[in-house]
UniProtKB/TrEMBL annotation:
The active site is at residue 108. Catalyzes the transfer of a formyl group from 10-formyltetrahydrofolate to 5-phospho-ribosyl-glycinamide (GAR), producing 5-phospho-ribosyl-N-formylglycinamide (FGAR) and tetrahydrofolate. This is Phosphoribosylglycinamide formyltransferase. It comes from Niveispirillum lacus. Belongs to the GART family. Keywords: Purine biosynthesis, Transferase. GO terms for biological process: 'de novo' IMP biosynthetic process.
Length: 203
């Protein structure tokens, strides 16, 4: 499966996918990285791995529809079969989400459906939850919703700060995202309505 990865910043999850794909037995490869910001550090990660990159800035387009149409065209031209949001900080329109229905996934730093949106680690600490984590899910129009493919949980300690908790979750993100992509690429994920059925024996 050829992956298109959309980023806005650091790109550590992109790096995890690049690293996973460096194993010749991994069933997916990163074909194209698109950023909405020219200074996204993740672009350098892609370039270092010899992966095609594209910067598409929303302000260079007449409107959101035109910006997203350019993304879809570029992804199609690159032969992308699965689009991975990896710290892409813009909400996608219903048209884009429909165009990539069940071929568009996201990683979110909480155990959804808890804590959609921003500042998840501070909110988890504030709520006093014992367990926090990350979720890889198919994208639906409403932000941070959609069929869940993989989750990983971490404990929350009394002394945790948003930063310490974020680091613990990020370590799991870097395993969960490549795992979710592998499960999809191996045909082990089917979507039935609002849920994904995942054949996860052995993972
Ligand atoms: C990650 O925590 C991801 O879950 C969230 O945004 C962050 C992106 O980090 N959606 P990176 O750019 O992959 O390092």
């Amino acid at each position: 499966v050829r992956l298109g990865v959309l980023i806005s910043g650091r790109g550590s999850n992109l790096q995890a996918l690049i690293d996973a794909a460096s194993d010749p037995t991994y069933p997916a490869e990163v074909a194209l990285v698109i950023s909405n910001k020219a200074d996204a550090a993740g672009l350098e990660r892609a370039r270092a791995a010899g992966i095609a990159t594209l910067v598409l800035k929303p302000k260079d387009f007449a409107n959101k529809a035109a910006h997203e149409a350019a993304m879809t065209t570029a992804l199609q031209e690159a032969g992308v079969g699965l689009v991975c949001l990896a710290g892409y900080m813009r909400l996608l329109s219903p048209v884009f989400v429909a165009a990539w229905h069940n071929r568009l996934i996201n990683i979110h730093p909480s155990l959804l459906p808890s804590f959609p949106g921003l500042d998840t680690h501070a909110r988890a600490i504030e709520a006093g939850v014992w367990l926090h984590g990350c979720t890889v899910h198919y994208v639906r129009v409403e932000m941070d919703t959609g069929p869940i493919i993989v989750q990983a949980a971490v404990p929350v300690g009394d002394d945790d700060t948003p930063d310490s908790l974020s680091a613990r979750v990020l370590e799991q993100e870097h395993k969960a995202y490549p795992l979710a992509v592998r499960l999809i690429a191996e045909g082990r994920v089917t979507v039935e309505g609002d849920r994904a059925l995942v054949k996860r024996a052995g993972v």
